[in-house]
Design a protein that fits this description.
- There is one protein chain.
- This protein is of the alpha/beta class.
- It has two domains: about 200 residues, Quinone Oxidoreductase, Chain A, domain 1, CATH 3.90.180.10; about 120 residues, NAD(P)-binding Rossmann-like Domain (Rossmann fold, 3-Layer(aba) Sandwich).
- Helix content is about 20%, strand content about 25%.
- The strands form four sheets. Strands 3, 4, 5, 8, 9, 16 and 17 form a seven-stranded mixed beta sheet that branches. Strands 12-11-10-13-14-15 form a six-stranded parallel beta sheet, sandwiched between helices.
- Keywords: Metal-binding, Oxidoreductase, Zinc.
- Belongs to the zinc-containing alcohol dehydrogenase family.
- It comes from Pelotalea chapellei.
- This is Zinc-dependent alcohol dehydrogenase family protein.
Length: about 325
């Protein structure tokens, strides 16, 4: 099969021919139909996440058709359309796993990081951590739901039930979570880079009631804020924007250093919290909810062999919505 392979951090991915993987016990062999590109993939490829297996096939927002079920697989059969998220496996026995916090497992395995992912024509996945995909979605539309959607959904839950929500960084996750928040009858205030008028217009088209520069004060006092941009300097700005009792949620797996700030920004029972990975319950709840809203994903599709160009576009902020890779062999 063809796959885009990372040999060393900081280098371009290489298009290579490698063996089609064989599913082990409890695993599925999937023919990849689409694989979303996430900012986490950038952090892996650029070396900001420092423990990948090498060589590595990245990609963790995978939509695939089941080609073969390994021994002991329950709940899936050949031909099923399934999704594979970032969380690819856990130990199942630590204090976090047994207390419904498997997202915090210290022995977790991550797709496209410690096991090969979906920048390829085929991949394998632990069936216990795969999801059935709603019939309402094409593979390219569904792919961003597997991380941008799931992390956005978990971030929104962590933000509480306040009506006025600020979102910093309007990319793949933000454009999905905005639709959920608007469906919940919240007001969304979207923040982008000062010059990104295209992103601001996109935010308004997704339902944001206001969009502007991250350097601007909000037109109203916020109840909560979610930061998707990996920029630590946004944390003090978000704290300034939320009222007493407000929460600032850091929704990324990586963020630059947070600068020091006066205690008065935190005082008033404001809080800062990070979102770490996802649980299977998050996935089940969100994928049941998505077609009811219904969530519409905006995608820019790239062929598999243009993965580097897609990563460059995401790194430079040129993607509106989400980028998705499609192998030539996909049944779409």
């Amino acid at each position: 099969m063809h796959a885009m392979v990372m040999e060393r951090a900081g280098e371009r991915l290489k298009l290579e021919r490698i063996a089609i993987p064989i599913p082990g016990s409890g695993e599925l062999l999937l023919k990849v139909q689409a694989c979303g590109i996430c900012r986490t993939d950038l952090h892996v490829v650029d070396g900001e996440l420092t423990a990948p297996k090498l060589p590595l096939v990245p990609g963790h927002q995978i939509i695939g058709l089941v080609q073969e079920c390994g021994q002991g697989v329950i709940g899936f059969q050949d031909g099923d359309l399934v999704g594979v998220p970032w969380l690819g496996g856990t130990c199942g026995e630590c204090e976090y796993c047994v207390s419904d916090r498997e997202n915090l497992c210290n022995r977790a395995i991550f797709t496209g990081y410690q096991r090969n992912g979906g920048f390829a024509e085929y991949c394998t996945a632990d069936a216990r951590f795969c999801f059935s995909i709603p019939e309402d979605y094409l593979p390219t539309q569904a792919a961003p739901l597997l991380c941008a959607g799931l992390i956005g959904y978990r971030s929104l839950r962590m933000a509480g039930k306040g009506k006025r929500l600020g979102i910093y960084g309007f990319g793949a996750a933000a454009h999905i979570v905005t639709q959920v928040a608007v469906w919940q009858e919240r007001e969304v205030y979207a923040y982008t880079r000062e010059e990104d008028t295209t992103g601001q217009e996109f935010a308004r088209s997704m339902g944001a009631c206001w969009a502007g520069s991250a350097l601007e004060p909000p037109p109203v006092e916020l109840d909560a804020a979610i930061i998707f941009a990996p920029a630590g300097e946004l944390v003090p700005l978000a704290l300034q924007a939320v009222g007493k009792g407000g929460v600032v949620v850091c929704g990324g797996i990586y963020m630059s250093n947070i600068p020091s700030f006066p205690y008065e920004l935190l005082w008033g029972e404001r809080s800062i919290i990070s979102v770490t990975n996802l649980t299977r319950r998050d996935g089940e709840e969100f994928l049941e909810l998505a077609p009811r809203i219904p969530i519409r994903t905006e995608v820019q599709v790239f062929p598999l062999d243009q993965a580097n160009e897609a990563l460059d576009a995401l790194r430079s902020g040129w993607i509106t919505g989400a980028a998705v890779l499609v192998p030539d062999t996909a049944d779409v």
